[in-house]
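Cross-check.
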Amino acid sequence: MKIERFEEIIAWQKAKDMAVLIYKDFADSKDFGFKDQIQRASVSVMNNIAEGFERKTNNEFKQFLFIAKGSCGEVRSMLYLAKELNKISETSFNKYFKLAEEISKILSGFIKTL
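Predicted model, tokenized:
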């Protein structure tokens, strides 16, 4: 099956869900530096998937998928900090971390197929 639009990409859909959850969870945070960093990293995952897809070449798409994967790692790293600083609950940490890991694995598989 040929993907016609980036919105059809499962990794993009899950990355969008993760970004929405992170935006909502950190909406009231007064730690603006932390909030900005984790929100930007989460948005970067979905946006790099979309931008890479729109480039229409496999090599460029692959490059953007690697960037998205890197941003996914950044989100996971920030989640550890959020948990240690009690900015999120253990339950939230586990939910977000699992989602970020899943996205990363999907991206790895996608990169291999390209």
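The longest helix spans residues 58-84. The chain has a mean pLDDT of 97. Passed to J.P. for a second look.
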